[in-house]
Structures are given as structure tokens and as C-alpha cells.
Amino acid sequence: MQPRAMVDQQRGTPARPGETSASVPGERGGASQGPVPWPARWGDELTGRKGVIREVEGPVRRIRGVRLGEFHFLRAAEEEYADAAFLARAIDAARTPGADPTGFRFRPEGPGSFVFLPDPAFEGPDAKPVPRRADDPAELFKFISGRVLTSWRNTPGVEIQRTWVALADPIGRDEPIGTIVLLPGLFGTPEPMIDRFERSLRRRGWAVVRLLAPPSRFTQRLRVEVDPSDGFGAEGQMIADELTGRAAEVAYAADAALAHARTLRPALADRPVVLLGMSGGAIASPTAFAWAEGNYDAAVLIAGGTDFLRINAESNYAPWVEAIELVPPGAADDPLGDDKREQSARADRSLWSPGLGDAYLERAHLDGHHLAPRLAGVPTLLIHATADRAVPAPRGDDLWRRAGEPERWEVPVGHEVLFLMLPGMADRVHKWLDANVIDPGVPEPGE
User: Fold this and answer.
1) Is the CB of residue 228 less than 8 Å from the CB of residue 355?
2) Which are the contacts of 302, defined by CB distance < 8 A and separation ≥ 6?
3) What is the pLDDT of residue 152?
4) Which of 264, 242, 116, 263 is nearest to 184 (CA)?
5) pTM of whole model > 0.85?
6) Which of 4, 59, 221, 243 has a CA 20 to 30 Å removed from the CA of 369?
7) How far apart are CA 108 and CA 158, in angstroms?
């Protein structure tokens, strides 16, 4: 018997102070350093998991990334219904045997989200099969989770979220030397540079579990009403819940993806694992590490930083990404037109203040500001652009200090140039991994 699904296609209401999502005490994250509150996900109290893995038909070229527009909600199509039902069935299976299926309402991703959709070029009755290339990832799947927003007549209203993942085997080697869990930047960019860097890792013998982009709602638009006269407590809590909830979803997806990869490739189970974050993925990496410290033997963070809110306020990408917008009281209900965009961007920056920043950090227990010290327990390498404006360089300096001042390579360039240089830095990264991670008893490729 199938779960009863109803789609909720209405626009989401603006976020106001006091509207927060449920959290539960963390059962993960290093008891020696104290528990932290990890956001709840639909059914996790029944399944013990934050979401489910669903296989995706490959190769990866069959799908393409799409960012939803400012006023666009994804119309629930067959794929969205199937993903929501897949998650619901996992929850039903964990209930008392014989219980009635769960009814639920669900909402697909909203404005600003980044999702992967079938490429029309490879769809339809006249479409030709998509041939696999020799270096294509071997497996493609997605992590699906849900956040309960409302309940009506015992029917939960669920906001689903998805993360697409590719598993790529080593090139020219039967047995992997270990696993790289790769967390890319916003929208999976810069894709060509990441592709080249990934291939170099695979040629060295690494299997790569790569999130194709951060979770779908990582850049979903949120307008937050900020009232400087009220002390920022409610605003700080609401922003902390939202931003660190997005980082937590990266952690949940990375953990589930690694577990699934080990199911598909049992040889990975006893080999080292490296957490490799880039840009937005590096910002979320301390959170991913803290959720599953036992997963990772080392970390490499490229162009990362601490303090999500301050990065959002100071980044030169903020007017382009527009993920979090700060507005005066009463303005969240006013739709923005193109003629107001520049004015809004100025207001957004003017409403950020040290007081709001302090209120956020006091409550943002899952921000790298608080969790970076946990990286001190494993070999860690930071690659830092000293002229970075996208993830402002001072935020990268703070990450380095809070992580215990691990090895850091400083490059006197900006954010974009650093990633253009990344393929050329591959050999140096490989040597660092060899020296800090690889078991000396495991022969190198070609030996």
C-alpha cells in the first residue's frame, strides 16, 4: 500500500523572527566535546537516519543543474512525487508492522534552490542512448530528506530536499587506496576545474564520492526581517537555525553518500577517507566533520571560512547569489522587482551589524566558527587565497586559527583564480595526501 501524497504548491511565507525549525540533541558529533543540536528530519526518530538514498539513472550527463528563479517554485512533477513517496515508504517501513501508511503533504524546492533535472536533449521517444565514457562516474544517486513544517489533521507538511551524488572509481587501479568525499562550491562550480582535479585524484588511486552541488536548498532565497531595536535575539536565532540547517544538510548528505558508496564498493570500508571541501563546501566542512568525525582521516579545505552570516554580508557574490536577504520590518511581504534589486542589496548590507553577527554566532552552534576546532584531531590542510573576496580572506584566516593553525598554503590571488590554479596544484596535494594519509603498507599506483 502506497503512502498518500498531496503536493503543496503554495508560495512559502516570508521568514520572521521566531519561526524556526525543530532541532533535536545531537546523537553524533563527538561526545568528548559536548553534544550540539542537530536539526531533525522527517522520520529520523523512526529510521535512525536523516534521509534515504535513491538510485539515479546515469551517466551523469543525463541530468543538468538548474537554479530556480526568484519567484519560481518547482512544479511537482513525476520525479518530485516519486522522491517524496520513496522517503515516505522508508518511514512507513520503520513503523509498527501493519500500521496504516502515512499521509503527507510535501513541498518541492523553492526560489533560489539548485536542482538537477533530466536534460531534454536525452529525453523523449526519439532520444538516443547516452554512451558512457571511460572516465564517467560509475554510480549516480541522490540523498532525499524532509523537514516537517506543519501538521494538519495528523498529516505532516514536509519540505523535501535533495542532494545528487556521483561515485567515481579509481582510474587504472582495481583496488582503491581510499575515498575522497568531495563537497563542491555553490552550484557545483567551477565544474571544469573540479572535473580535472577529480580525475587526477582517481589516477592516483582514490575513489571519489562527489556531491554534484550542495543540497538543493543550500541557496534557496530567504528574506529576513531585521529590527535593530529589539536586540537581535529572535533574528539571530532564526538565521542561525536556517543557515546552520543548510550546513547540517551537507553533513547528512555526505555521511549517507559515503555509507552508500561503501555498500556498493565494500573494499572502501577499511581504507582512509578524506573530506575535501571547496568554497561553499569548505565552509560547511567543519559541520560535516563534526556530524561524523569517525568517518574522516584527514581534511583538505580550499577557500573556506567561518561565520556564514558574515560571509553572506561581506562576500562580493552576495548580490548575485541572493540566498539570504535582510530587510526592514514589514518589508518581507513586498515582492521585489528588478528596479528595486540594487536598493535591496544596499539595504541588506546596511542591516548587517556586529550586534546581529554576535546574536547569530551565539546561537549558531553548527557554524564552523564553533566546530572548526574539531578538525585539530586529524591532519588538515587549508588552501587559502589571500585576496579572496567571495569567501572574504579574513574569514579564511579565522578558520585557520580556530582549526588549530594547521598547515596552510597561501596563494596571493582571488577566489576565482585560486580555482583556475587548482588542477596545477594537484601534484602537490597528492604529495600531502601521501605523507599524511596513505598507509605506507599500501603500494602506490604502478608499483
Assistant:
1) yes
2) 276, 277, 278, 279, 282, 382, 383, 418, 419, 422
3) 66
4) 116
5) yes
6) 221
7) 9
Angle at 280 between CA 402 and CA 34, to 5 degrees: 40
- Which stretches in the chain have pLDDT values below 70? 1-35, 71, 73-75, 97-102, 124-125, 127, 151-153, 230, 331-350, 439-447
Closest to 65 in 3D by CA, of 164, 193, 183, 138: 164
DSSP state string for 120-184: GGG-STTPPP-PPPTTS-SEEEEEEEEEEEEEETTEEEEEEEEEEEEEEPPSS-SS-SEEEEEE-
Q: For residue 399, give the C-alpha cell.
A: 578558520
* Cβ atoms of residues 140 and 59 within 8 Å: yes
User: Which residues have CB under 8 Å from 184's CB, separation 6+?
Assistant: 194, 210, 211, 212, 213, 214, 278, 279, 280, 281
The secondary element (H helix, E strand) that includes residue 83 is helix 78-93
In terms of Cα–Cα distance, which of 210, 221, 104 is closest to 163?
210
Q: What share of the chain is helix, strand, coil (3-state, %, to 5)?
A: 40, 20, 40
Question: Counting every residue, how long is the chain?
Answer: 447
For residue 236, the number of C-alpha atoms closer than 13 Å in the C-beta half-sphere is: 20
Cα separations (Å) of 11 from 22, 73, 159, 425? 21, 7, 12, 45
Q: How far apart, in whole angstroms, are the C-alpha atoms of residue 63 and residue 103?
A: 30
Please, which residues bridge with residue 24 across strands?
A: 38
Taking CA atoms, 122 is separated from 66, 77, 256, in Å, by: 16, 18, 29
Do residues 211 and 184 make contact, with C-beta atoms less than 8 angstroms apart?
yes
Cis peptide bond upstream of 59, omega within 30 = yes
Q: One-letter amino acid identity for 85?
A: A
Domains of the chain: 4-436 (3.40.50.1820)
Condensed to tens digits (0 to 9), the pLDDT of residues 25-72 reads 344 554 334 567 899 999 999 999 999 999 998 888 889 999 988 767
Beta-carbon contacts of 401 under 8 Å, excluding residues fewer than 6 positions away, are none
Which residue in this structure is represented by grid cell 596513505? 438
Partnered with residue 116 across adjacent β-strands are 65
